[in-house]
């Protein structure tokens, strides 16, 4: 199966799946986020990994990371229910937030923060989970638990402020890079890793020295990088 974060390519993902004629479900079904429509999160059945539509999906993933691969014997509707159980976390002060573990750029960071016990629960129905994100090669997460596969209907996920800060720091470079693309400072047609690898040294310089006084606001950091001629 494949998990597609269509928010990064909303005009392309659903039409591709419809042309392919493959079964797919929205993981946001029944949630307020379902209103996102073509920008939702989709679980799709994959029976032929050599199919043309899979090749096109991989090209989309290289352009803007959006694809995770899942190996599981569970039914698709059961997996949707399981994924929904992990979508939101309690971040304190009676607030909840969506944890975008399904964005391949975030998967490894989220798993690190979740910890061993929560990751084991999440991987319950999966034999393997694979993603690329910020990596050139596929990263594989194996389910090494001896416990029988289990679908979770509801899970209490709590993130401490330190966890929230760590995820914010992890996602900040991509937020700024997106702002720079939108502003015309970076060529968004280049493959993601080319863009990211060119950007990250400049980002690090800004964070370590040049951005003092910006309060680490992504918008201000983006403006700082542009004004200073980093792009």
From TrEMBL:
InterPro entries: DUF4123
Domain DUF4123 as annotated: residue spans: 3-116
Highest taxon above the source species: Bacteria
Pfam families: DUF4123
Protein's UniProt name: DUF4123 domain-containing protein
